[in-house]
Specification:
Elements: E1 7-10, H1 22-32, H2 34-37, H3 41-50, H4 52-56, H5 62-73, H6 80-90, H7 96-110, E2 117-122, H8 126-135, E3 145-147, H9 158-168, E4 175-179, H10 182-190, E5 194-197, H11 201-213
Parallel strand pairs: 1-2, 1-4, 2-3, 4-5
Helix pairs in contact: 1-6, 5-6
Length: about 210
């Protein structure tokens, strides 16, 4: 019996793309005019996180997202467009070492060093995805790439993982999933998917090397 092809399934943000810096967050706070609205930053960021899933899943657009935050916080933000631009800017920086490793992994397939697919599963809003696709040609190296905004579901929902397994025509034990968010790792492991909680490139490289070798 022929086993399904192995797949190394990466998250995007926190691995290849950098998470928001403190400076970038401050720019979002300025764009939202938190000081003039008397909104505490800690409450803003709590709302920002709590209401993000429908945006990531493509069920609402950014204007609706900002409106929902305003409703929860009891304010009306002067310009959702300003928040949008600052938000996109905060998510546009990549990690050079990780991108270099991506190319090495793809070269490994071409050179016969391993036969694993190098795939991607990312939570990302549609408008942000459109922007970074223009700037990051290396995104095309992931084959296939799954984006939450096009699926209507987002991590850590079980449905997004079962969908990926089905599309890949594989079994959970033939996948290694790498993500920096523990909740996503927990869901994947619950479904029998091999997982690595990403804390840095060294540990990730070791986990991938062991997975493709066995």
């Amino acid at each position: 019996m022929t086993l399904p092809q192995k797949t190394v399934l990466f998250d995007l943000y926190g691995l290849f793309m950098r998470n928001q810096s403190d400076a970038a967050k401050q720019e979002i706070e300025k764009a939202a005019q938190l000081e003039s609205l008397a909104v505490e930053p800690v409450k803003f960021w709590q709302s920002y996180r709590d209401l993000r899933a429908p945006l990531d899943a493509g069920r609402i657009n950014f204007a609706q997202y900002v409106s929902a935050m305003g409703e929860e916080l009891g304010v009306t933000f002067p310009s959702w467009e300003a928040i949008f631009e600052a938000d996109c800017e905060s998510w546009r920086f990549h990690d050079d070492a990780m991108v270099e490793w991506l190319y090495e992994l793809k070269d490994g397939v071409k050179n016969g060093e391993h036969s694993a697919r190098i795939a991607l599963l990312s939570n990302i809003p549609a408008a942000l995805l459109a922007k970074i696709r223009e700037e990051k040609p290396w995104l095309r190296e992931f084959e296939p790439a799954f984006f939450s905004c096009g699926l209507g579901i987002a991590k850590p929902e079980e449905k997004i993982f079962t969908y990926v397994v089905k599309v890949l025509e594989t079994t959970p034990d033939r996948i290694l999933f790498l993500d920096d968010t523990k909740a996503n790792i927990d869901t994947a492991e619950k479904l029998g998917i091999n997982s690595h909680h990403f804390l840095g490139i060294d540990g990730a490289q070791k986990a991938v090397a062991e997975f493709v070798a066995r």
